[in-house]
């Protein structure tokens, strides 16, 4: 039986997830929530969905049993909390919550609703090519360091340059380069190497106090991971994981399309698999399995939840280091 899916947020990533959900055969879009009815209807029409809501309570009472949330970061907490209170499974886009205090409150609420599953939609760590990276890292004799790069000119940066404050570049919405783009390589680094011992963040501030780009350093016992990201430029540099003489090169740490291993002799070994047409399909299938088979997947689910919480803490620590405060922190 397919899960009855509701969505919050009507941007391109929501459309991509709905398409992936339908392709998986595990979900059917049932309801759309939007602050503006016209926007919601416009999104729903291609999917032949009539149930469009501007009231969150009515939306959660519409018969859905899983919600995908891709609204601004700052409103995730209240929307997720309401979903859990209605015993609805949650798939929430990165960054899931503004700070560890919000995350702790959600975990406490989950304890009161043991049948509800919460997932952070870090699609790249679910993809086949990321599994290839994990396997190769496990085989490398020594990890000497890593550099992950993800700089992508935002479609909203022109709006910022024109004197406006788009949501994705505003502390008011718990946003900025770190929580919008940096979360991708940070998720990858923590999934591959575990929680760092120390963190440092050298942020380049925008005029509104948010970060437009930055360099984060995650310090482990005997190596560092340097992460460079930003929303006001395009970088075409690959990411690298260094061994001694061997190196793992990743073409794009967020899309994970190209993975090449250079052995001790410098010979190149192409490790990439052909990606799925929709990069969100794999996570949609995995989340459905964890909701359908909660006992068999309990350990894997707890691992994902713990990873998400660790990423949240590291993002917060990096912001603290750079002196970036969100209104949600107060």
TrEMBL record:
Domain Gfo/Idh/MocA-like oxidoreductase N-terminal: 4-115
Listed Gene3D superfamilies: Dihydrodipicolinate Reductase, domain 2, NAD(P)-binding Rossmann-like Domain
Species for this entry: Weissella thailandensis
Name recorded for this polypeptide: Gfo/Idh/MocA family oxidoreductase
């Amino acid at each position: 039986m397919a899960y009855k899916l509701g969505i919050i947020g009507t941007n391109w990533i929501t459309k991509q997830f709905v398409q992936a959900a339908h392709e998986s055969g595990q979900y059917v879009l049932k309801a759309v929530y939007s602050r503006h009815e016209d926007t919601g209807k416009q999104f729903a029409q291609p999917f032949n969905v009539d149930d469009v809501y501007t009231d969150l309570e009515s939306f959660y009472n519409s018969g859905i049993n899983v919600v995908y949330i891709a609204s601004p970061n700052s409103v995730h907490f209240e929307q997720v909390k309401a979903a859990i209170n209605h015993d609805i499974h949650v798939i929430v886009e990165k960054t899931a919550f503004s700070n560890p205090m919000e995350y702790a409150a959600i975990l406490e609420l989950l304890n009161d609703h043991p049948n509800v599953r919460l997932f952070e939609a870090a699609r790249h760590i679910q993809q086949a090519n990321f599994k290839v990276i994990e396997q190769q890292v496990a085989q490398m004799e020594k990890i000497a360091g890593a550099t992950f790069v993800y700089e992508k000119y935002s479609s909203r940066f022109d709006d910022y340059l024109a004197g406006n404050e788009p949501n994705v570049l505003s502390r008011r919405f718990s946003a900025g380069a770190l929580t919008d783009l940096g979360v991708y390589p940070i998720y990858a680094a923590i999934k591959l190497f575990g929680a760092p011992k120390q963190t440092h963040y050298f942020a380049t501030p925008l005029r509104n106090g948010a970060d437009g780009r930055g360099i984060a350093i995650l310090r482990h016992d005997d190596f560092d991971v340097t992460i460079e990201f930003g929303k006001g430029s395009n970088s075409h540099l690959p990411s690298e994981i260094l061994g001694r003489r061997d190196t793992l090169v990743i073409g794009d740490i967020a899309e994970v399309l190209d993975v090449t291993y250079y052995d001790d002799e410098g010979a190149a070994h192409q490790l990439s698999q052909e990606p799925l047409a929709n990069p969100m399909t794999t996570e949609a299938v995995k989340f459905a399995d964890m909701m359908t088979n909660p006992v068999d997947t309990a350990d894997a689910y707890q691992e994902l939840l713990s990873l998400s919480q660790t990423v949240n803490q590291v993002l917060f620590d990096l912001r603290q280091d750079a002196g970036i405060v969100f209104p949600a922190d107060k």
